[in-house]
Design brief:
Layout (H helix, E strand, L loop, with lengths): L2 E7 H12 L11 H10 L6 E10 L4 H13 L3 E6 L7 H14 L2 E7 L3 H13 L3 E6 L1 H4 L9 E4 L44
């Protein structure tokens, strides 16, 4: 029997979704966490111990509305770590600390990290890999930087988890095009004031 641990970076993934859809995500655009829980169970053996943790950074103005979601997560079997949002505070260090705490307890077979934050997780996940822990990152490759290419790590695109999103996200990804090609629809108006081109062509 081994221990499988998921840490889900809710602030980072919400911010990434906002970038993808160019707006504040609604319940319709956010991932179905119950589906994620089922997916996690399916990737473990029946005798494995599974712990799924959602980390949230709570600003005062969202504390009330967020409470219902937290209660729902608890009912779905998730643990929730909630921390007050204070200036630039984040939950990255708390997530890394939790992973090492579980490693120190022993029997840590697999870690799942839901985040695109390579700066926070690349080094500690590399250390866990060197210590024999199977590491999977759940995110969006175009935002995950080195987390999507680190040797030995399994990267799972969140949209590849069936049922996690009710509708396809409007992503501009050129790494996994279908062989027949794909159309991308304009997001701006012809003849409008041009914006600087940031990426090299």
């Amino acid at each position: 029997m081994g221990r499988h641990v998921l840490v889900w970076d809710a602030p980072n993934l919400d911010m990434t979704l906002a970038n993808i859809i160019d707006g504040k995500p609604t319940a319709k655009e956010r991932p179905d966490m119950a589906t994620l829980g089922s997916w996690l169970v399916q990737h473990a053996d029946p005798e494995d111990e599974i712990e799924a943790c959602v980390f949230v950074n709570v600003a005062p103005h969202v504390a009330g509305p967020l409470r219902g979601w937290v209660l729902w997560l608890l009912e779905q079997g998730f643990r929730v770590f909630a921390k007050p949002k204070d200036g630039d505070s984040d939950v990255d260090d708390d997530m890394v600390e939790h992973l090492w705490d579980r490693f120190d307890h022993g029997d840590l077979d697999a870690v799942y990290v839901g985040s695109n934050d390579a700066k926070a997780f690349l080094a500690p996940l590399g250390d866990l890999l060197e210590r024999g822990v199977a590491v999977s990152v759940l995110g969006f490759a175009e935002y995950a930087g080195g987390l999507s290419t680190l040797g030995g790590l399994r990267f799972v695109d969140l949209e590849s988890i069936e049922g996690l999103f009710t509708e396809p996200l409007p992503r501009i990804t050129l790494e996994s095009l279908p062989t027949e090609g794909r159309w991308f629809e304009p997001t701006g108006r012809l003849g409008a004031e041009p914006t600087p081109l940031d990426a090299d062509r």
